[in-house]
Design brief:
Strand content: 5-15%
Largest sheet: 6 strands, mixed
CATH topology: Rossmann fold
Helix content: 40-55%
Structural class: alpha/beta
Shape: globular
CATH architecture: 3-Layer(aba) Sandwich
Number of helices: 12
Length: 268
């Protein structure tokens, strides 16, 4: 998940003067959710808990207001910020997000519809057997640390053609492998806790979100099916919904830069 703040001349790390962030005049901030990378674990966390974490980061950096964007697992957490700290969030964009499980109009059968078998297995285990989930993801994390490209390669068989085109790019494959390795560098705790949080009550009601919102989804996504974003867009009064035909889950990586100018408008 990313935070954007309009502070020309005040950025985290060097920003090329010919780069998009420099031209937009924004400060781009990322962080590891609890249990990932170098972040301490927060056992039993819910999706809604992210709002206090983001508020603390913003306070530390002296940011009164900011825009938020989340892709895939970052999507629910970006929505939580919009719902729970609307006085600080100016705009929010969510790409290929999941929707709350078992929600009205999206029961468990619908929630899993169109999802890849590996994801169904993981989320079903997260619902019913936390110990088994921890054991499975501990083994997967060990394999990723041994071979950072392992998860990317293991996903390939379940990718749609659109995702294969994106992941075929050497730079993106390298980035994904590096990100997966960093996520589980210490343990699979963040991965485990995310899976459980996504399958549990989120602690927010998307219908209460009033800040300007963009919901984007690739029509052929099999990791978080488009029905999830369609449900979100119907519940969020301020949502602008885009479904891109011929696109899938990893196309969101390429779409994100196109959303930055919109996100930056009210975060200056």
């Amino acid at each position: 998940m990313l935070l954007l703040h309009g502070t020309p001349g005040s950025r985290v790390g060097p920003v090329p003067r010919d780069g998009l962030l420099y031209r937009l005049g924004v400060r781009l901030i990322t962080y590891d959710r609890p249990g990932y990378g170098r972040s301490d674990r927060h056992p039993g966390r819910r999706v809604s808990d992210v709002a206090s974490d983001v508020a603390a980061i913003a306070d530390h950096l002296g940011l009164d207001s900011f825009a938020v964007v989340g892709r895939s697992g970052g999507g629910p957490h970006a929505l939580a910020c919009a719902a729970l700290i609307p006085e600080r969030v100016t705009r929010v964009a969510v790409l290929v997000s999941l929707a709350p499980p078992g929600a009205d109009g999206l029961d468990w059968l619908d929630w899993f519809a169109g999802m890849t078998p590996a994801n169904i297995r993981e989320y079903q285990t997260a619902r019913h057997n936390h110990a088994l989930l921890a054991a499975r993801l501990a083994w997967a994390a060990q394999e990723i640390r041994r071979d950072p490209a392992h998860l990317v390669n293991s996903l390939f068989a379940e990718l749609r053609d659109a995702d294969r085109r994106v992941v075929a790019d050497t730079g993106i494959r390298t980035m994904l492998a590096r990100n997966f390795a960093e996520a589980v560098r210490a343990s699979p705790a963040g991965w485990i806790d995310d899976a459980i949080a996504f399958c549990s009550p989120w602690g927010i009601d998307p219908a209460e979100i009033r800040v300007p919102t963009v919901v984007w989804h690739g029509e052929d996504d099999v990791f978080s099916p488009v029905s999830h974003s369609r449900w979100l867009a119907q519940r969020i009064p301020s949502a602008r919904f885009t479904v891109q035909p011929g696109a899938a889950h990893f196309d969101a990586i390429e779409v994100l830069p196109d959303l930055l100018p919109w996100l930056a408008q009210l975060s200056r």
